[in-house]
Every structure is written in C-alpha cells, then in structure tokens.
Specification:
Blueprint (H helix, E strand, L loop, with lengths): L1 E5 L2 E3 L5 E8 L7 E7 L6 E6 L6 E3 L7 E6 L4 E6 L8 E11 L2 E6 L3 E5 L2
Length: 119
Amino acid sequence: VQLVESGGGLVQPGGSMRLSCAASGFTFSRYAMSWYRQAPGKERELVASILSRGDSTNYEDSMKGRFTISRDNAKNTVYLQMNSLKPEDTAVYYCNAQYRRNFYVENYWGQGTQVTVSA
C-alpha cells in the first residue's frame, strides 16, 4: 500500500496550491479519503474528507470556503485545492485512506508534504 502526496511547497499569503495524493496497492474506490495536517508543536488535525464515491465531503470549519477536496477514482488520486492561504495553514499535510465496515477499520497514511505559507 502506498499513498504518495505531492504539490507542497512555499506559497505567499493569499495564494493557492493544489495537493495530490496518488494511491496504490488497495482498492481505492472503496476507501474514504481524507487530508490531515500537523503544524509544529500541534496535534494532527482533520482538514477535509470525502467518501468513497465522492458524493459527500466534510471540512474543518476554518477550511470551509477556502479548501476543496475531490477525488478521481479512475486515477486513484485524491486532491486538495487550497485557496486564500494564510500563514496559519503552514503544516505538513498528510493523506489518509480509511475503510470501515462494522467494527473493522483499515487506515493508511502517506508520508506527508510540507506546505509553507509565507511572504
């Protein structure tokens, strides 16, 4: 199983960035996908999630209206479009895949990609 994030880097405040997470080694279309982030000295937090068929999304309140999660099940890829970026969005962003059925849960994580918002 592999989740490989890409698209991070340095961006100015107010700018935009698109993260990608390419998945392999499991049946991508069966998994809910999420983006998490972790800033230095802080706990990892949920940014956004999308269900397996892409028909439902969920966002942390501070990201609503600025971030958009999407997925392409044909390409086994999930995306995070980030607009109006703020310095407090600086963090390592992680891709997560989760399969849940009754009491059975599978969780996979990517290695993370650094996003730095600074002038």
